[in-house]
Write the structure tokens for this entry.
Amino acid sequence: MKLKSIIILLLSITIVSCSEKLKSLDDTAIEVSAVNGEELSFSKNIEFEHRRYFIATGGYGSIRYLCIRLSMNSQLLGKIDDEIEGSIYETMTGDLNGNSKPEIMLLCINNSYKGFVDIVGYEFDGKIFRRYDLPPLDSDLAYGYGGNDHFYISKSKLIREFPILNTQPKAKRKITYSLNKNLEFSIEKFDEIKYLE
């Protein structure tokens, strides 16, 4: 009777140990093959300042499940699971606010309005990821806006350019954003640039 009890106890410990190990492996995985049980619709690895970001989304609807894993020297430093609207078409990294905590920015095409782009960003503060979003254009800057944005980073500033519709001669608007330590964007300047024809 005692032998049977000991065997059952050992089996129970083994099963619990295995399930905990599987859970641990999933929780500490640097890359994943599915997000929230959904097939990957986007995945990318980015190296920046000795850090490696694995970014993936799951699903194909207007709302996607997002997974970011940050690692260094094959050790997981942090992770976040979130939801975003739209589909990622590009990523950017930089330290826009100069606090030595790089940000990762996801450029997402709005599924409702093709050609319209949103930016969702994350900064890892050593413990958790903090999210920030690019605010919508105010009415003056949105005048003549029709999407087809081009974003890039120059001298720790986020630059946004887009064509202005129905102008003669043709022109584009260029907006320079800065990011503060509270992860809030502000507009430093904007220009209208005429195209040479």
